[in-house]
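Example 3.2
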Amino acid sequence: MNISKYKKQGFVGADINLKTSLYEYGLIWKEFKYNLKKRGIKKGEILAISYSKYPEENTNYAYFTKSELINEDWIDYKDVAEFCGLPVDELKSQDAGHLLFLLISFYGAENFGL
């Protein structure tokens, strides 16, 4: 996987080093700053890429919006906030990419289609 390609496209991760974010933490994302109507992408949506070091698991891609993440009724934000050491309102105020990273840290990537 060519990390420099993703860096040029504006992907970021939980670590300042994109390679570490993808290969150690298993997730990088890109937030779209404007609508891409031809592709059906709205401003603020993120494209998340997950990676597994296990060959039987694939690299997966998925689109999310912050409102989708906030409004998932199966997510227990109180438990996630406690796990992360944050108040619930601070957890929910994270940008979409970091919020997804924290939710995946608690629930696992498979629960988000990644």
